[in-house]
Amino acid sequence: MIRVLLLTLFFLIPINFSHAETIKLANQGTYVGEVSNGKPHGFGTLNYSDGEKYVGQWKNGLRDGKGTLTYVDGSKYVGEFKNNQIHGQGSFTSSSGSNYTGEYKEGKMDGQGIYTYSNGKKIIGKWLNDYPVK
User: Fold this and answer.
1) What's the average model confidence in pLDDT over 92-109?
2) Rg value, the chain, Cα
């Protein structure tokens, strides 16, 4: 009886077997990491064909969770992603040395944050659509 119950539960509980592999993503680059149903899912690295690089969490083929995006010019974003966009808490440092650390919404500075220019000058406060709110 217990054996029948265990077998029944095994087939009723959805199990997602992720595994690491290398896949070529059309018009994007080469991905190495966990894959589910042929898509990046879990932790992995995408080396974009234009030279950019993303290392972090994926969900159903999209950047989702914590990760690091390094741009061709050396600029870098470290933080949260949602549905393939920069979204949540994070820090962006430009190749010139300026930095924004704070909240992002759909790829834009949005919420509380600190922008530090390369000369050390700071803007501290609330941001909306990439602009400080006065």
Assistant:
1) 98
2) 20
